[in-house]
Amino acid sequence: MTEPSGLSVTPEEGGALLVEFDRPEKRNALDEGLQGELLAVLQEAAVDRGVRGVILTGSGEAFSAGGDLSRFEKDWDPAEFRAQSHELTRLISAVERLEKPVVAAVNGLATGAGTQLALSCDLRIASENARFLFREGMIGLIPSHGGTSRLVKLVGLARARDIVLGGEDLDASEAFRHGLVTRVVPHGRLLDEARERLGHILRRAPQAYGLAKRLLHLSASVDLESGLFAESLAQSSLVGTEDHKEGVRATRERRAPLFEGR
């Protein structure tokens, strides 16, 4: 996998891909170049059998400060702004739709689109140095790119209202209390913890994980009957896979299964 300029991309043992935002002087703000680079990495990871899961983190003191502030100093035509915003929404949705596990290792500041990227990951592990800022209202904007809808689905309407309308800044322990992150660890343990959690997930059959992930997201926006139908289709496609057969054999033989994603 080629390494883009705004990212550090490191293949790791077991099929993990460590993706680090590498603009510490800009608090890892997501300019158009970095957005395009990250989207390309995700698209390549989606079809690369050697990549089984992804860890997202930031260099320096920030996970990501979201959109570069200079972007908001331009005199935008509304239609042009919407078109560019759709590209960032596409990136964040690509994280959520990747049929492989994505773990956010939130090392420091996350705000704006940086927070939305973290919310789109399967798991969010926070360093004790992590902070989540919801200050869009201070520049006359709202949390976008799914920022309100994902937050409500994750923590519930009452807490989301408290966070967004109250303009709360959450440290790591408060983010955990609100259900925004999965766990909080000492800063020096962050990547080790992310690797351990990802390794635990990667013991599962990859196709089954990918479909379960998509179904869980789907369940939040469809009725029960539609959800049941989607589950039936997914299950019928999995029952014929080599991984399913291997899982049954391994269970009978009381050994760990060796899944190959087939």
TrEMBL record:
Biased composition (Basic and acidic residues): 241-262
Upper classification of the organism: Bacteria, Bacillati, Actinomycetota, Rubrobacteria, Rubrobacterales
Provenance organism: Rubrobacter marinus
Family recorded in the similarity comment: Belongs to the enoyl-CoA hydratase/isomerase family.
Gene3D superfamilies for the chain: 2-enoyl-CoA Hydratase, Chain A, domain 1, Lyase 2-enoyl-coa Hydratase, Chain A, domain 2
One GO process term, biological-process aspect: fatty acid beta-oxidation
Origin superkingdom: Bacteria
Molecular function via GO: lyase activity
Disordered: region residues: 240-262
Keywords: Lipid metabolism, Lyase
Name by which UniProt lists this protein: Enoyl-CoA hydratase
InterPro entries named among the record's database cross-references: ClpP/crotonase-like_dom_sf (IPR029045), Enoyl-CoA_hyd/isom_CS (IPR018376), Enoyl-CoA_hydra/iso (IPR001753), Enoyl-CoA_hydra_C (IPR014748)
